[in-house]
Design brief:
Layout lengths: L1 E17 L5 E21 L4 E5 L10 H12 L5 E7 L10 H16 L6 H11 L3 H4 L4 E6 L3 E4 L8 E5 L6 H6 L17 H4 L1 E2 L2 H7 L1 H12 L4 E4 L6 E4 L3 H13 L3 E5 L12
Parallel strand pairs: 1-8, 3-4
Antiparallel strand pairs: 1-2, 2-4, 2-5, 5-6, 7-10, 7-11, 9-10
Helix pairs in contact: 1-2, 7-8
Length: 279
């Protein structure tokens, strides 16, 4: 089985408080985009689960993909094994949810290949135990994420076809991004309106990241200067994105960042019905 594992962007991310175990309470709007990793699965007769990746730093058994596979095999007493290969295209530690997407992909794929017949409720319970974003990637599309992000509710699709992603090749761990956040006290009430993106797109993590990483601040200013309707940090960063109305302007902006050796990708958001699991 060859599968596609899609990235996401956050159009809205408010941090409303702290939760136990160093988690933060969030209110976020997530959208799937057409950037994806490839995951291939082969069932083997031996009980071994093997995992490989084209990125050496991710090619180990600490990867969430391996952990999900190992958990499922042991929980359901599966005698077969699996050989899994991950071909990464989504930048890592970049606010695009690549690792969570890969893990959710593995959960869905092995449920099918090993014929586990996991209920939707149990699927989400397992996903929650491995991370905050996995639940979103079980369906994708556009969704509201609450609590620590694992409580997801589908929203009407937000379809954008001129989204420029840029990344300066600086990984930013989520733990650092949340350490830098300044949560207003008393809490501020912000609302997201899909019909008014320029005024309501927001990321509470962005100010702290901009102060700590001047290259991010400069990149966001440049996106604005090129005329992006929205220019913001995705999730915990370090990927920034601009939403454009003119494709030619977007491509000129992309070339500017390519000249600076940024990673760049022109993306589109995806409707839930258009997300194809099999590549």
């Amino acid at each position: 089985m060859l599968t596609a594992s899609y990235a996401k962007i956050n159009l809205f991310l408010e941090v409303t408080g702290k939760l136990p175990h160093n988690y933060h309470q969030v209110n976020t709007v997530l959208c799937s985009i057409d950037l994806f990793d490839l995951l291939s699965y082969s069932i083997v007769d031996s009980p071994d689960v093997s995992f490989s990746c084209n990125i050496p730093s991710l090619d180990n058994n600490e990867n969430l993909v391996y952990k999900i596979a190992d958990y499922l095999q042991k929980k359901f007493c599966i005698k077969q094994g699996a050989a899994i290969h991950l071909e990464k295209h989504i930048p890592t530690a970049a606010g695009l949810g690549g690792g969570s997407s890969n893990a959710a992909n593995c959960l869905l794929a092995l449920n099918d290949l090993w014929q586990l017949n996991i209920s939707d409720m149990d699927m989400h319970r397992i996903a929650t135990s491995f991370g905050s974003d996995l639940n979103f990637f079980l369906q994708g599309g556009t969704a509201l994420g609450e609590n620590r992000g694992e409580q997801t509710s589908p929203l009407p699709d937000i379809l954008l076809d001129k989204v420029l992603l840029i990344n300066p090749h600086i990984p930013i761990p989520s733990s650092l991004a949340y350490k830098l956040v300044d949560i207003p006290s008393p809490a501020q009430t912000r609302y997201f309106d899909s019909s008014n993106l320029s005024q309501t797109c927001f990321n509470r993590l962005e100010p702290g990241i901009r102060k700590a990483f001047p290259i991010i601040d400069s990149a966001l200013n440049t996106l604005h200067n090129y005329g992006a309707e929205v220019a913001m940090l995705s999730g915990s960063g370090s990927t920034c994105f601009g939403i454009f109305t003119d494709e030619a302007v977007m491509l000129r902006c992309k070339q500017h960042f390519m000249d600076l050796n940024f990673w760049c990708f022109c993306a589109k958001t995806l409707a839930r019905k258009d997300i194809k699991f099999s590549a």
